[in-house]
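User: Round two. Same drill as before: sequence, then structure, for each protein.

Assistant: Same drill it is. First protein:
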Amino acid sequence: MPLVLTRIDDRLIHGQVVIGWGNYIHPDRIILCSDSIASSPWQRELYEAAGAMAMYNVTISIWTETETIHFFQHDDAVNKEKILLLVESPEDINRLVENHVQIGVVNVGGMHFKRGRRQIAPYIFVSDEDIASFQQLLERNLTVEGQDVPTSKKLDIAKLLEAS
């Protein structure tokens, strides 16, 4: 399957992703799916530059949700590349799945503290809306695992939500 990692991480592209996960899975392409970042030239430039940290050849694509969906539905490259897909929230994953992007496993990296969120793991803080979105993903039979770096233990998000 070309989609080798689908990750929720509110910091999106940073060292943990490019170096930690990238050196582990060696993606051909990292897709950052964010309408706000894709429409901001200075943010695009900042995130594209983060790809220079990679010690492997990787294409950084910063796309809107519509562009991302189009790529997964219509571009032949999707079947020829190993892809790491980054989004900011579980709501983003639900919208992609609703638009027929085939995702089986969701990796939850950093969802950091903000007002109105509660902690369910050392690096995962969730709001009521996040919990509802995670429940939708689980009802769709997606596997949802917390794992900040490849060498850390996988956390079962369903069990963490039950305990919270």
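Second protein:
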Amino acid sequence: MTPLPIQPETCLGILSALPEEQYGLVALLEQTQPLQAHAGRQFVRGRLAGQPVVLALCGIGKVAAATTTTVLIERFGVRQLLFTGVAGGLAPGVRVGDVVVADGFLQHDMDASPLFPRHEVPLYGKTRFESDRLLSSRLLQAARTALSDGQNLCNPADRERFGLHRVAVHHGLLVSGDRFVSALAEAAELRAALPQALAVDMESAAVAQVCHDYGVPFAAVRTVSDRADDSAHVDFPAFVEAVASRYAQAIVRALTMLTSTSPGDGNTASE
């Protein structure tokens, strides 16, 4: 196949794992181009606040996320990448309905010991991949702006249903692994092994590693859908649709407005 041309402007890629997480983002697009398929995934091109954007559904898990990230960079010419979705809260004080903007990523199920220390990615000499400083800073500012009146993003019935009272935005470590953490004992084990971790998901650290390899700036924002315990499966699809997707839409809108009026393009991937 003939490769698609790289955008002359800095193109932003936005990844989501589930269709429900992406619905609100598709609605934001202007000048939307026909759906394109590649490597078993679907991609939507358009513009947000005048900036070229590609939306992609990666599916669940680290391999699926890494494949989709590679396609976004190699085939669609993405030069900045953002992940929006949900996560399970780990740290005390990270509640359902809160938002986590990552400053770094770690694979909690990476264990090549005794050849390498637990959690260290073999041959990289590191356990943690950092968010791009500029993009992450803007994402944090966008999240705080968008959610400053977060009560109005969801209807009162949904706020009551999910116990949402006051939205907090956290900034810190996001850990990823190829299992859905849904038992109290598992969550406690993760907290003991990784006390700095704010939340757990199944994709972000894999995307961070691919972006590190390509030198592409990456940042991630996750809405806390559960406490990664025995109640983690309760009303999960409903929460994503009624809460997380609306948060993501508001945060991405705020981010694109911010980047469209700020100097520089965030193209400073952290080592």
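Strands lie at 12-16, 36-38, 41-48, 51-57, 80-89, 99-107, 128-130, 169-176, 197-201, 218-226.

User: Perfect.
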